[in-house]
Amino acid sequence: MAQAGGRAKARPYEVSKREVVAKTGELSVTLFTLAPGESVPWHLHSEICDDFFCLEGRIGVETRTPKAKHLLNPGERLRVPPRTAHLVINADSGTSRYLLVQGVGRYDFVRAQDAEG
Q1: Using an 8 Å Cβ cutoff, are 44 and 112 in contact?
Q2: Could you tell me if 61 and 88 are in contact, meaning their C-beta atoms sit under 8 angstroms apart?
Q3: What value does the mean pLDDT of the chain take?
């Protein structure tokens, strides 16, 4: 749990493992590990791009506008621009890992369960 003003702040979702590789005020690099069946729920970011780099297994990234489904294998990458609702899933029967580069700009996580954008 992250600390905010001395109080514990719950993360908007949980995954098997996330390891911050580097972080500044406007850029973040995080290594994610997803177990079979795990996902990052529908969300969007107001200012930043998400750059996904698949390292192990297969990662599925679905977007709503434009409506698309992407399947990333190791060595492949995908950029999701700001204000684009997306879902990330482990699309493999085993563990999947990906590196996520987020920036440049202010980070936010806006739940988009019913979003069209």
Answers
A1: yes
A2: yes
A3: 89
Which string of DSSP letters, residue by residue, matches the chain? Answer: -EEETTEEE--SS--SEEEEEEE-SSEEEEEEEE-TT-EEEEEE-SS-EEEEEEEES-EEEEEETTEEEEEEPTT-EEEE-TT--EEEEE-SSS-EEEEEEEESS----EE-TT---
Kindly report, residue by residue over 65-103, the tens digit of the pLDDT.
899 999 999 999 999 999 999 999 999 999 999 999 999
Q: Where are the domains of the chain?
A: 15-111
- Which architecture does CATH list for 15-111? Sandwich (2.60)
In angstroms, the first-to-last Cα distance of the chain is 29
pTM to 2 decimal places: 0.85
Q: Which two tokens stand for residue 52?
A: 């996904």
Q: Which of 22, 21, 24, 20 has the alpha carbon at shortest distance from 2?
A: 20
User: What are the pLDDT digits (tens) for 27-55?
Assistant: 999 999 999 999 999 999 999 999 999 99
